[in-house]
Write a structure and sequence with these properties.
Helix content: 25-40%
Strand content: 15-25%
Low-confidence stretches: 1-9, 115-123
Number of helices: 22
Number of strands: 33
Oligomer: single chain
Largest sheet: 9 strands, mixed
Strand order of the largest sheet: 12-13-11-8-6-7-15-16-24
Structural class: alpha/beta
Bound molecules: 5'-O-[(S)-butoxy(hydroxy)phosphoryl]adenosine
């Protein structure tokens, strides 16, 4: 984060008291005052065993656990000895307790609006959007059928199933079906490119992929199946055989090319099946596997500071206990109270895992899933959805809020948002201006805002206001979640005084914490557990890689990542990942990627590239805008559209320190326009002068 935004948060003194539950239509707050929060938090950290034992009673167990926690830092085992199943907890137990016919998922498809306003693919658009409601019983039947179908394809307990799907109810069914039969899911965001799929499937030793022929996004069809086919071929060349691909038919009616005969073989090794074929043959009786507390529930890949994404490993009991508690407390979820919760994140991110799916279903509150983009067909689609479905809690990202601000106040103003009782944000620091806009135009100055700070690795919220208890300040994620012993420390592990910037750490284990980086113990330790430790006992503390400060009221203000990852529109991207994609293009000799401030995205990608002269000559090319565009498109094709650089800049050479390290700080300053560089021609940047001046600083 820039100095400017840090100083603007320092000047931020507005305080918004928690509203009264009744004024918003809540029957009560789960935590109703700051005094109650303080007492609960204090107890949760002082007596974690009894605190978490109580929380564990909100989960249904097939067999009781006998120890709350075994902690040999950094390895935690929670609820040791217990047996349970995640799908049972989200689905079957609600059916068994007489709620089978209640709505679990409300889904709305993207295609909507007059045909004429849509260039592609016209025939799919209707005046009314497609809406589906799935009850807990529907989910029980569908997860059973798909679970049996997966077993018939050879999927066994402990296997990892890769899922690459659009935001359709079958995505939720696929994840829960895996959980039902004891397989772990590894969901890959539908915006990623074939290489990202093959890289993740290979790392996870995954042999089965569930996908869809396509997905609707902003009026276009995203060719998911084609991407999987490409990934399967790449894997085949590496000797990693994908045995089966299950394909949901979603867009076949507008994309007739995506037809195949079910059971057809590709490359002589991978069989493709239609979802509806394998499921129609399967029985709807499929018992929920009794898993051990620490059995893997899922992998979710996230970017790190090396080129390769890390498979963050979450296990069954701890994740479920933490997801249900944080969802309940942060969003004040209450069953049978007319609530409809909507988290607009894609399920391909942890936000969707915990707060579209697991945390919400665990609490028996219906969850809304929307397939498409906020501007399809018009810029008011989200507000239209909230008004038509009477959404009560809404959760989105700062980058989305900044986009809505730009689109104009008239879009939310034209809709009845009176059903909203609470609104939230996640993914990156929210600037006070965007917070105030959200408060005024969406929350209508009534709804509390929960700014939730957490990570893929934490499983659920770790710093957030509890809406009935904690007064909010625009731009601050406020105070630690119950059970979270968070602090701002220096490199020596000493806690820093108020308003001193330092490193965000968590000193005690919590049930939702990651259990590992799949197949890479060394990365697990070095990324999270080696930088900070208790100066007295030497015990490692969890380090989130974020810089933050705590103000005089104990409120946290997250300043942003201090490692080589960038938050682009709230999505983490490793600079190395983008650099590897760039150097895989034959024109590129060397590349350095840095983040630069961006009004809407928070950060955008700026790539500095040196070219291969021989390639330019042989291909009769110039270092011009066309080549910049080609390189940007190459990155999008290798990683996914969200990694497409906003700027590609050609340089003579990259600025390096005496020891040969790229001077990233200098490049960041250049990208932000803080530092000017000379250009020897109109196209190539010359760092020689300033890099000499600054060589000692880096
Ligand atoms: C990183 C984690 C957590 C789900 C989505 C992102 C940043 C997240 C906030 C917030 C300031 C935030 C941090 C963190 N971040 N929420 N409320 N305020 N920063 O998960 O992709 O694992 O990213 O997102 O930098 O380390 P993720």
């Amino acid at each position: 984060m820039s100095n400017e935004s840090i100083s603007s948060t320092l000047q931020e003194h507005r305080l918004f008291a928690p509203p009264r539950a009744a004024d918003l239509g809540f029957s009560a707050w789960h935590v109703a005052s700051m005094a109650e929060y303080r007492a609960l938090h204090e107890r949760s950290v002082r007596e974690p065993d009894s605190f978490w034992a109580e929380e564990a009673s909100n989960v249904s167990w097939f067999g009781p656990w006998d120890r709350v926690l075994e902690w040999r830092a950094p390895d935690a085992k929670w609820f040791v000895g217990g047996r349970l199943n995640a799908c049972y907890n989200c689905v079957d137990r609600h059916v068994q307790s007489g709620h089978g016919d209640e709505t679990a998922i409300v889904w709305e498809g993207e295609p909507m609006g007059p045909k004429t306003s849509h260039p592609v693919p016209g025939s799919a658009y209707a005046a009314e959007p497609e809406i589906r409601r799935l009850s807990y019983r529907d989910l029980q039947i569908q997860t059973s059928k798909l679970g049996n179908a997966l077993k018939a394809l050879g999927v066994k307990k402990g296997d990892v199933v890769t899922i690459y799907m659009p935001m359709v109810p079958e995505l939720a069914v696929a994840m829960l079906a895996c959980a039902r039969i004891g397989a772990a899911h590894s969901v890959i965001f539908g915006g990623f490119a074939p290489h990202a799929i093959s890289e993740r499937a290979q790392d996870a030793h995954s042999r089965v992929i569930i996908t869809s022929d396509g997905g609707f996004r902003r009026g276009e069809v995203v060719p998911l199946q084609t991407n999987v086919e490409e990934a399967v071929d790449q894997l085949n060349n590496l000797g990693h055989i994908i045995n089966h691909v299950v394909v949901l038919k979603r867009t076949a009616h507008v994309l007739p090319s995506q037809r195949f005969v079910s059971g057809a073989m590709r490359n002589g090794s991978t069989r493709f099946h239609w979802w509806h074929d394998v499921v129609s043959r399967a029985s709807d009786a499929c018992p929920c596997e009794a898993m051990e507390s620490e059995d893997m529930l899922f992998l979710l890949y996230t970017s790190g500071s090396t080129g390769k994404p890390k498979g963050i490993l979450h296990t069954t009991a701890g994740y479920l206990v933490y997801a249900q508690m944080t969802a309940r407390l942060t969003f004040n979820l209450i069953p049978d109270a007319g609530q409809l919760f909507w988290c607009s994140a894609d399920i391909g991110w942890i936000t969707g895992h915990s707060y579209v799916l697991y945390g919400v279903l665990m609490n028996r509150v219906p969850t809304l899933m929307f397939e498409g983009a906020p501007n399809a067909p018009r810029n008011d689609r989200f507000w239209d959805i909230i008004a038509r479905h009477r959404v009560t809690q809404f959760y989105t990202a700062p980058t989305a809020i900044r986009t809505f601000m730009k689109w104009g106040d008239e879009h939310p103003a034209g809709h009845d948002l009176s059903s909203l009782r609470l609104i939230g944000t996640v993914g990156e620091p929210i600037n006070p201006e965007a917070w105030m806009w959200y408060h005024k135009h969406i929350g209508r100055e009534r709804c509390p805002i929960v700014d939730t700070y957490w990570q893929t690795e934490t499983g659920g919220h770790v710093v957030t206001p509890l809406p009935g208890a904690v007064a909010t300040k625009p731009g601050s994620c406020t105070v630690p979640m119950l059970g979270i012993d968070a602090a701002i420390v220096n490199e020596g592990g000493e806690e820093l005084p108020a308003n001193k910037g330092g490193l965000f750490c968590i000193k005690k284990p919590w049930p939702g914490m990651l259990r590992g980086v799949y197949g890479n113990r060394e990365r697990f330790i070095s990324n999270y557990w080696s930088r900070l430790k208790d100066p007295r006992t030497g015990e490692p503390w969890y380090f989130s890689a974020d810089g933050a400060r705590r103000d005089e009221d104990g409120y946290f203000w997250v300043q942003g990542r201090i490692d080589d990852v960038i938050k682009v529109s709230g999505h983490l991207l490793g600079t190395m990942e983008v650099e590897s994609a760039l150097v895989s293009h034959p024109a590129v000799a060397e590349a350095a990627v840095v983040g630069m401030p961006h009004e809407i995205k928070g950060s955008a990608i700026c790539a500095f590239v040196t070219l291969r002269p021989a390639w330019l000559i042989n291909n009769k090319r110039e270092p011009d805008d066309a080549l910049k565009k080609e390189l940007a498109a190459h990155v999008a094709g290798e990683v996914g559209a969200l990694a497409r650089p906003d700027q590609v800049r050609f340089a003579d050479g990259l600025p390096k320190t005496r020891s040969g390290k790229i001077m990233r700080r200098l490049l960041r300053d250049v990208a932000a326009g803080v530092e000017k560089i000379t250009q020897d021609t109109s196209t190539l940047e010359d760092f020689s002068v300033i890099s000499k001046l600054r060589a000692d600083e880096e």
